[in-house]
Sequence to fold (633 residues):
Amino acid sequence: MSSSLPATPPPSPGTVLTLQQRRLQQILWAVMAAFGTAALMSFSKGGYTSVALELVALALLGLAYRWNQRGELARASQWMLATLIAGIFGLMAAGEGLYDEGTLAFPAILIFAGMFGSRRMLWVLMAWLQGALVLLFVLHQTGVIRAASAPVDLQRLVMMVAILAAIGFFVWLLTGDLHSTLAQLASEKEALAESHQRIDVLAHRDTLTQLPNRTLAKDRLELLLLQARRDQRMVAALYLDLDNFKTVNDSLGHAVGDELLCLVAERLGSGLRDGDTVARLSGDEFLILLGNVHSEEAVAASARQVLQLLARPFPLQGLDVVVTTSLGIAVAPRDGSDVDELLKNADLAMYRAKDSGRNAFRFFDASMNENVVEHLHMASGLRTALAHGELQVHYQPQFDLHSGRIIGAEALVRWKHPTLGFVPPGKFIPVAERTGLINEVGTWVLHRACLDAQAWRQQGLGALTVAVNVSPLQFHRDNIEREVANALAACQLPADALELELTESLLVADAHHLSEVLQRLRAQGVQIAIDDFGTGYSNLAYLQRFAVHRLKIDQSFVRRMGSSTHDEGIVRAIIEMAHCLGLQVVAEGVEDAATLHRLQGFGCEFGQGFHWSPALPAEGFCALVRNHQDSAA
Ligand code: C2E
Ligand code: MG
Ligand code: MG
Fold:
């Protein structure tokens, strides 16, 4: 049967000390009362020497009382003992010597010393008391003490010394046990306090970065909200997610991923004002809490500062790794007045920042909640889309800008939703990436594109190439090479008819692992293109390191060429730089003849865009190629 007695918590070292002080105070009161009574009695008997002695002892005990109140326990207790021994000895000498009632106080003195003093002190005191007895005996023998009622003999002295020694021994044993129990209690208490502290750290701190964790962050946010309500100020919650952390983690290893998280934590911490909080919520998600904010502009300025702080490359394993960040911001009281609502809305805004092209911040707005519902529908719908054949691949022709011939097409996935109609890839690809479905979608698109490209060859359309977009997440899985080889083999398509389009951010973060994978894909004969070039952070060093064939200039620059000399300059510089590195260039988003002519003038090799055609279903693309070939013939 288990005991049902409630456990009594051990006293803390702090309370043990105050308890001792309290006890000493009580003892001092009692001793002073005894001396006071003795003084009154002596006065009534006319023993003025005794009165004087007792008053001096009272004054000295008063001093001990003062020290004890100030917390000087050791000093007070030693002083009290010395006063007691001297006082009692003096009174005994002035009174009846060994017959005096003062001897009754000896055991009490020993107990007191055992409790409040050290073990050594107990023995020293023992020796003093024994010495005092011997001295009193001598004073008797020499006739100095005359007031004694009877003469003393040696036997009496020996008996008294022996009794005192026995009492001293008991006190020594008992107080020894008491001390060791108290010491054990104190050390258990200390261990308990330490483990409480450790539990507290585990419960409130992230073990990797030592930043506050979600629990502590929520507590702090609660507090900030209370203060803000009182001071009529705003509180901002900035939900931060590293865009390409998974790529770093998977390619450079988890230890490097951890290192990156610590560096991010350090940078975030260094850029904050006192009173702001940065916490790690999970994986690559951080939360920044800004209290006492007076305007949204101030929050936006802080968000910009955070993006800049993290935009500087992180030195990891001899590489300068660039990570981009998406920030979602919710501001109280506008976007929610309680912790959970505010965090949920900041999280939503963060996803919106990601969807809008990453490396950006977004403030929450109420329409985002409606989008969540849409997102959930989309995520579950996408799962069945593949099985129900709702996905299609359309092909946008790519042209040789010099000969004007169609050299191939970019495969662009389309989702024909039974109720929503055509859902653009810009909407469902991010959902597929977030839910992990991108791997299945990507594999399906790869097979479909290879099948169609092979069909074009069989239909006599010539050696057309097909470019397939590959999400960074597909590269995190180690089987991308196998999937490519399988697709090519299953469709019997030559490897050089397939081009894989990678995003620029992948190059930057995935340097080590990616370079090897690309080398092996290139060895298979597959072509590699960098998509949307100019929007990320890749530089010459990155391009040189990778086995890349082509750069695709992002359509935003190409489309603005006609209206902005700045963008035209960028396009020209990219083309020249690519040529220096022996790379070909594809211009995306060519919408008019004027742009086409400029590109031709700059020596750009290939182009695609609405100037020729949007992406078409496979049959439409075949018809376009045939028409084109017929008109060229
Ligand atoms: P992207 O790879 O840069 O594809 C080019 C996008 O530009 C396509 O949009 C295309 O329709 C559009 N476009 C082409 N010419 C013009 C033009 O002259 N003017 C304008 N304004 N736009 C033009 P789409 O099909 O909506 O695809 C958007 C993005 O979705 C693609 O950008 C690509 O990143 C992604 N995506 C499409 N299919 C796949 C896929 O199968 N897998 C993966 N991972 N991503 C895909
Ligand atoms: Mg593309
Ligand atoms: Mg593109």
Observations:
- Residues 1-15 have pLDDT under 50 and may be disordered.
- The radius of gyration is 44 Å.
- Residues 409 and 466 are 5 Å apart (CA to CA).
